[in-house]
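Entry for the shared binder. Reason: the reviewer on the internal report wants the predicted structure included alongside the sequence.
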Amino acid sequence: MCVPRIQAQRLPPEDSPEPPPPHRTLKPRRPPQHARVPILMYHYISTPPPHSDRLRRNLSVPPEEFEQQLNYLRDTGYTTISLYDLFAHLKDGAPLPAKPVVLTFDDGYRDAYTEAFPRLKARGMIATFFIVTDFINFKNPNHITWAMAREMAEAGMSIEPHSRTHPDLRNRSHSFLVWEILGPIEQIMHHAYAGRRPRFFCYPSGRYDDHVIRFLKSVEIWAALTTQPGLTHTLQNAYAWSRQRVFPGMSMRQFARLLGESA
């Protein structure tokens, strides 16, 4: 009897790689005309001492309130981003998370390191700290040190200039602006960033004029922040980006309104 021959099937080896997916060319993302991103403004994260003046009280968010605000951001789906992320989104179309928020701290007070920094780090959040460099250079005990600034930068925080001595920059000479703006840029490069150049500036008390803007452009600052309220930012108004000031004693509903949420 003739037995038919069964042709053995040739099976691929078990470790043979899968064929690569077909090559796709992704179209570059088109940069948006604007971005609605809350930039929150803090100063002190501390309870003001007894008999503090009105300015100190208004600039002081107690640590327990700050912690509640960070928890609210985390629990409602916000992601902290840097000003570099926001600028890249507007310039190159780099994607942002669904609910981005920028946290900024002015002046470089010591509680930025002792109170804000550990709470941010514990939650995997980042922030931008605008520092007044002569307060550090002359070892003012109420302000951070360069070692603290470097530690914060190495942990992913941004350290950016807020001038050398916190003066009104309006109607000033070119040499004055070199001293107050370019000097701090170079100091941050050397002491905090190990050679990387800071690209953002915060106007002292929110005051500036056209001469200051021209100078910032000449020293390759990409954007500057004011104290004016607002949520929407563009490249066209990059030297007048708005921020939302966080006041002490705010309810969570008031805080949510700062973020642009409806009541």
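Summary line for the report: Strands lie at 35-36, 39-42, 79-80, 100-107, 128-131, 158-161, 200-202, 223-225, 232-233, 244-245.
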